[in-house]
Amino acid sequence: MKTSASLWLLAAGLLPCAAHAQSGVTLYGIVSSAVRYTSNVDARHHDQAGLVSGGMVGSRFGLKGTEDLGGGNRAIFQLESGFNSDDGRVAYNALFGRQAWVGLAGDWGSLTFGRQYNALNNIGWAFDPLDQGWGNFWSDPLYIGGDIFFQDYRINNSVVYQRTVGPFSVQLDYGAGEQPGGMSRGTTLGGGVKYQQGALALGVAYDQRRSDDGGNTIRNYSVGGSYTVGKATAYLGHMGRRESAGDARFAISFLGLGYQLTPALHLSGAYYRYRQSGAVTTQFQDVPVHLGGGNADSVALVADYAFSKRTSVYLEADVVHMRGGTVGRETEYWAGTPVTDVSQSTRVGVMAGVRHHF
Q1: Domains and CATH numbers, the chain
Q2: Shortest CA distance to 105 belongs to which of 80, 75, 84?
Q3: Which tens digit of pLDDT belongs to each residue from 88-126?
Q4: CA 356, CA 358: separation in Å to the nearest integer?
Q5: DSSP code of 126?
Q6: 0.85 cut: is pTM over it?
Q7: By 3-state DSSP, what share of the chain in percent is helix, strand and coil, each rounded to 5?
Q8: Would you say the C-alpha torsion 54, 321, 253, 245 has a positive or negative sign?
Q9: Cβ contact 205:222 at 8 Å
């Protein structure tokens, strides 16, 4: 605790200085909190209410900067810390748990090193109908099955290459496993391409990760698209996951619509269909419990009202109906204990919150 406190005090002292020491450094952040009510959270008809951190986007603060090196090249870096706005604790058990990288950039693209977002995150979230550029929210339907479709979002010990050429944006990423006994143990490898031309956007991404002991390889992929007509944007996407150990398979398909009703009010809604099959087990139990196949349907609606460019309030509602082994995955993830003796269950949630950018 003393070490964590010292780090926070050091960061608090350095951030204002860094933000003013050179014009190429920017201090930024988001604070977002919401009040949420969830019915039947554990498939035992127990409800839950509380103040949740993040709400429509994870709370954070960070530093990012650039230095001109001449010849069209520049040095770049980003340090970003996540925190829980409900209790003030550091997220991800790290001072800069969201991002921590440094690298070089130029007309040839960028090459960066550190803890960074994978291609699935950078491309896949762009087609979530409820994202709208804000980031994932606390109870996003893409979390059905235990938040498994993004390979943990970030890669430690990673090298990432990115480049934009015309309407195409490309990312390649590699994470060193740093495990004894084999070069491939614990490694990650992936990439993706996004196309953006006028009203149309398309994207595809893939990432895989070997387990630390080399006995399992997890493969995730994402495909999606969006199209804008006037004030409305339609979204369509599909994500999948396959685990080589036990051949567990997961998939989620979704479609939705966003509409800018007024300059301040944005409305969005979406439908999600989730499926799991094969030797699916629990995620967090010391001894994994077999769950098997199942599926779920979810509908979610969001209204976001902007008081200014920096401050918004939002209202969200969602319903998830799960069947078969999906009941166990969902109750373990949200309530901590997997339920295996219930064949189907419905969970309803509502959330209201505020988001401020600085």
Answers
A1: 2-357 (2.40.160.10)
A2: 75
A3: 999 988 999 999 999 999 999 999 999 999 999 999 889
A4: 7
A5: G
A6: yes
A7: 15, 55, 35
A8: positive
A9: yes
